[in-house]
Design a protein that fits this description.
This protein has 12 helices and 5 strands. The protein is mostly helical and about 270 residues long. It has one domain. The strands form 2 sheets. Strands 3-5-4 form a 3-stranded mixed sheet, sandwiched between helices. A two-stranded antiparallel sheet has the order 1-2. Helix 6 packs across helix 7. The radius of gyration is 18 Å and the shape is globular. It binds zinc ion (ZN). Zinc ion binds next to helix 5 and helix 9.
Length: about 270
């Protein structure tokens, strides 16, 4: 399908490095800091509204071109089954996720790409499933990572940070209190070339591992996934890597967190077999 259509989805696929070091006590699994309070400058409901509009444009465009896989497509059913298991654990990282209108779609495109927009709008491209020959565990790692970006509100943080950089705190406050949310979001939405920061990528990796493991998917697939991604990037850099830089450090970081999430996986597997 037309890459320009696909590009509509990209503006919200970014993140930033604002993080307040307040450990959120959550018991077992990974420990993550609380999201930045700065993100509150951007109203979540407006951002989710914009994300929904962009997602609808993307899926409608794909449908017109015959590139939107139908609900009875085996790979769509597979993606939705995996999503259902992951989403069950989403409120652990963002209580608002219980009211999100989650959607999962598959778009026919050679792109090695996947995303989850604010508010739970997930899309996978056939390219990532087919070129990387992803196992269910690896699909869950990709999905967990993308869902983590949405749950941890990395886009919202980025918009807030960009707005402050551009307008200053006082003006951003005035704009927002004046009700011109759309202006702030639309202006930031044009910054399609922004990439995820390393901090937010690590955060999404760690939270994604936790989600996948709780859902009963093997978190060690994080290592095989990123090895596949690295190999694929030697031919032509996958779209996914333009926003998700890979490398040995990323794999090392994932390996470092395996000890925290393997017990979740084993517990989930145990409860399934009972
Ligand atoms: Zn990412």
């Amino acid at each position: 399908m037309n890459p320009r259509t696909l590009a509509i989805a990209l503006p919200l696929l970014f993140a930033c490095s604002i993080a307040i070091a307040q450990p959120a006590a959550k018991g077992d699994g990974v420990q993550v800091s609380n999201p930045s309070v700065l993100r509150k400058l951007i109203p979540a409901e407006r951002l989710e509204h914009t994300a929904t509009e962009q997602y609808q444009q993307l899926t409608a465009g794909a449908r017109r071109q015959g590139a939107l896989a139908p609900a009875n497509h085996p790979q769509v059913m597979r993606l939705r089954a995996i999503a259902e298991r992951i989403i069950k654990h989403a409120p652990r990282f963002n209580p608002d996720a219980t009211s999100w209108k989650w959607e999962v779609n598959l778009i026919g495109s050679k792109q090695i790409n996947a995303f989850c927009m604010p508010g739970g709008k997930i899309a996978f491209y056939t390219g990532i499933l087919e070129t990387l020959r992803l196992t269910d565990d690896e699909v869950a790692i990709v999905m967990g990572h993308e869902v983590a970006h949405a749950l941890r509100e990395h886009s919202r943080e980025r918009l807030a940070k960009n707005s402050i950089t551009r307008f200053g705190t006082a003006i951003v406050g005035a704009v927002i209190s004046g009700g011109r949310y759309a202006d702030v979001i639309n202006q930031a939405g044009s910054l399609a070339t922004l990439k995820f920061s390393r901090d937010n990528e690590t955060d999404a990796d760690v939270v994604g591992l936790d989600l996948a493991a709780r859902a009963g998917f093997d978190p060690r697939a994080g290592v095989t996934l990123w090895r596949k991604m690295t190999t694929a990037s030697k031919n032509a850099p996958p779209q996914f890597l333009s926003t998700h830089p890979t490398g040995p450090n990323r794999i090392k970081e994932i390996e470092r967190h395996l000890a925290e999430v393997m017990p979740l996986y084993e517990r989930s597997r145990g409860s399934e077999s009972r």
